[in-house]
């Protein structure tokens, strides 16, 4: 009986550190994204930890190297983008969900362009990092487009990757001051052009 009592009291104690650790990790990642955007790849890890409210030991346990932190920042942003597709599908009509996600993807491209030099500082470059995220992004677009096709709001022959390719192309023209507004207009053009003809 004593062993059972000890075991049962261990579980609540185990859960709290895990929750705290997750909150620490989330704060570090959010702070790191802001600092990398502001200061580039040489942003101070000590400053990131200070702003996130964690000590050097906690910082090191979560992210033992600068590269590990940079990779985690990018992967977290991609995971948020994929999660948004599911959330939009649950809360919105199919075409509305697709449009909302495409607009969010424009914001993702904008953030990625600002912080790209940080990703490029990774040992071996950022190609592997981007490659790993491609499936999540493609999967999100695929699910949203297929749902809109099934509802009759998009033509059956529309290929999800064609729409994604058009949005990805924006990454190559981000030097113009109004590219983001242009991207938002492009989303509406792509959706209008994908609707069933009367």
Features:
198 residues, Arc Repressor Mutant, subunit A, 8 helices, disordered N terminus
Description of the structure:
The protein has 198 residues and is an all-alpha fold. The chain has helices at 2-39, 45-52, 56-62, 66-91, 94-120, 127-150, 160-168, 179-194. The model is unreliable at 1-15 (pLDDT under 50).
The profile of the biggest β sheet is: none
Give the overall silhouette.
elongated
User: Uncertain runs with pLDDT below 50, 5 residues or more?
Assistant: 1-15
Number of DSSP-assigned strands: 0
How would you state the average pLDDT, rounded? 83
Order of helical and strand elements? HHHHHHHH
* Structural category: mainly alpha
The named CATH superfamily of the largest domain: Tetracycline Repressor, domain 2
Q: Label the CATH architecture of the largest domain.
A: Orthogonal Bundle
